[in-house]
Design goal:
293 residues, alpha/beta, TIM Barrel, 13 helices, 8 strands
């Protein structure tokens, strides 16, 4: 079974498949080691970690593909790539989907924002006409080589145009062939429930841990999302936010040792040399060395 087929099967179960956002080799390998069945590639995480810039459409297609190729090469998990708006019109989407599939992704997400896009939880979002996005979804479906390659259609219409429009768009995108639909930045539990129950395709819900202002999607227990029939629960920011906080804590602790004039290790704050090598697969490299010396 291909990774795309496995991902499509998991989505079809509608059992709240948790997809953690990954953005580098550490995060991808750690998510796999922790037993998750699939992962999403965080476009925001790539922009923030690779470019040091916010998720406002500054990262190009080739930079994205390079990251996807590297991530797909270091994990056995099926990955959904983040193609933003598809980098242009339906023809650009067709080309982008082919490239993401060849890079090793098991699926791709395309959104209906105006370019340059914004992170879904930022103010000032605008969306393209629904007809234009339907054309992009149809192009994405036609472009894939593997019919199980997952096309995830995201709508950002809930904020600027309201929940009814987001539901209508999601259904149109499903009719155009999307395997998974997602409305970003829903504001209440009732909105989430209504969206999931009103769309005709498997639905994804975004849990935005680390967002201090709660004028966006509320956090819900996984059991409640599973009972609702949610197909996928996206956790896009957990590892980027935790990684940043962890580095800040370690740097502050190191600065404190300098100020106190001491030298000390902090195994409570940092992974050991051995733990990192184990995570990176050093034992497999050693096995290959002994086999082919």
């Amino acid at each position: 079974m291909s990774l795309a087929s496995e991902l499509k099967r998991l989505i079809g179960e509608r059992s709240a498949l948790v997809m953690i956002g990954v953005f580098d080799g550490f995060s991808a390998r750690l998510v796999e080691q922790c037993g998750y069945q699939a992962a999403l590639i965080s476009g925001a995480g790539l922009s923030e970690s690779r470019l040091g810039r916010p998720d406002v459409g500054l990262m190009g297609l080739q930079e994205n593909l390079d990251a996807v190729r590297a991530l797909a090469g270091c994990t056995h998990l099926p990955l959904i790539a983040d193609a933003d708006t598809g980098y242009g019109n339906a023809v650009n989407v067709y080309h982008a989907v082919q490239q993401f599939e060849r890079a090793g992704a098991a699926g791709v997400m395309i959104e209906d924002q105006v370019w340059p896009k914004r992170c879904g939880h930022m103010a000032g979002k605008q969306v393209i006409p629904a007809d234009e996005m339907v054309g992009k979804v149809r192009a994405a479906v036609a472009a894939r080589a593997d019919p199980d390659f997952v096309i995830k259609a995201r709508t950002d219409a809930a904020g600027p145009l309201g929940l009814d429009e987001a539901i209508a768009r999601a259904n149109r995108y499903a009719e155009a062939g999307a395997d998974l639909v997602f409305a970003d930045a829903l504001l209440t539990e009732d909105d989430i429930i209504r969206f999931v129950k009103s769309v005709g395709a498997p639905a994804a819900v975004n849990m935005g841990f680390g967002i201090r202002r709660r004028s966006t999607t509320p956090l819900m227990p996984m059991a409640a999302l599973r009972d609702l029939g949610v197909a996928v629960v996206d956790i896009p920011r957990l590892l980027t936010a935790a990684g940043l906080k962890g580095m800040a804590v370690a740097l502050n602790a190191f600065a404190d040792t300098i100020n106190r004039g001491v030298v000390e290790d902090r195994p409570d704050l940092i992974a050991s040399f051995e733990e990192i090598n184990d995570l990176m697969g050093l034992q497999e490299i050693r096995r290959l060395e002994s086999t082919y010396h």
